[in-house]
Design brief:
Pfam families: NLPC_P60. The protein has nine helices and eight strands. The protein is of the alpha+beta class. The chain has a domain of 182 residues. A six-stranded antiparallel beta sheet has the order 3-8-4-5-6-7, with helices on one face. It has a two-stranded antiparallel sheet with strand order 1-2. Helix 3 runs antiparallel to helix 4 and helix 3 crosses helix 6. The longest helix has 23 residues.
């Protein structure tokens, strides 16, 4: 699996989760926390958990997951002629998202919490990749993605698997083509939330919220267009218009000042 080489030691990477799942708190804890710190000054979790804890050592799962992904991905349907692959960094993000979805689906022998822990490791890694592509603070984006509920995380990762798929009006076909609302319907439909086609209809079917309450994966709407929020103001996953494809983008300040946010789960 492709990974990023990140210079900031505070950015959580896939292989950093080497103790227990609760070490995730190192990422979402405030920087000025009074929690214990390592010799380098980074927050650490005291390893006081005993063997009766219901979680296993997550690094073993992550390594197993990466190995499983290689086999699972070989069995996934390919539409090479219909799907021009995204270039460069977006391709890395798309592949990471595809691996996350494939691994989560394949590890049925694990309990739901353990499958979720493996998925969280991917979520953190993909968040750092997306942040670096957009030029935003990777730690802030990771905090936002890890704080989101599981359904929002899965919906967003589902959408990211389609990076590079071309725009087509009224389309909603995996690995082939999407319009803006087609991508939303696909991503949320994969987690059991049915949404009709059409940006206005989707926005109306969800509950409008303030940006302060928005999670990654929530809807960002303006008349004629809808996208998925990435957890950092202005950052979206979208399919904009003909000639473009599913992409990561930063909206300009003029647009962010009047868009509306909505949560499909409430």
């Amino acid at each position: 699996m492709s990974t990023w080489v990140l210079e900031d030691p505070q950015i959580l990477q896939l292989d950093d989760i080497n103790c227990y799942p609760v070490d995730i708190w190192r990422v979402i804890a405030p920087v000025n926390s009074t929690a214990p710190r390592s010799s380098q000054g980074h927050p650490v979790t005291p390893k006081t958990m005993t063997t009766q804890h219901r979680y296993f050592h997550i690094r073993r799962y992550v390594r197993f997951a990466i190995a499983a992904a290689a086999f699972v991905m070989l069995g996934l349907p390919q539409h090479v002629s219909a799907k021009p692959m995204p270039q460069g960094q977006e391709q890395v993000i798309a592949q990471s998202a595809q691996e996350a979805v494939a691994v989560f689906s394949s590890l049925t022998r694990l309990s739901a919490p353990d499958r979720g822990d493996v998925f969280l490791a991917y979520v953190s890694n993909i968040a750092a990749q997306a942040a670096n592509f957009l030029g935003v603070d990777a730690r802030v984006m990771q905090q936002s993605w890890l704080a989101a509920d599981f359904a929002h995380q899965r919906a967003l990762v589902n959408g990211l698997t389609q990076l590079g798929v071309p725009y087509k009006n009224n389309a909603s076909t995996e690995n082939v083509a999407f319009d803006c609302s087609g991508l939303i319907a696909f991503a949320w439909g994969k987690v059991g939330v049915g949404m009709t086609h059409g940006s206005s209809a989707q926005f109306a079917s969800a509950t409008q919220i303030q940006v302060e309450d928005a999670q990654p994966g929530d809807l960002i709407w303006r008349p004629g267009h809808i996208a998925m929020y990435l957890g950092v103001q202005g950052a979206v996953l979208q399919t904009p218009y003909s000639g473009r494809s599913v992409e990561l983008q930063l909206m300009n300040e003029r647009i962010t000042s009047w868009v509306r946010y909505a949560n499909p789960l409430i």
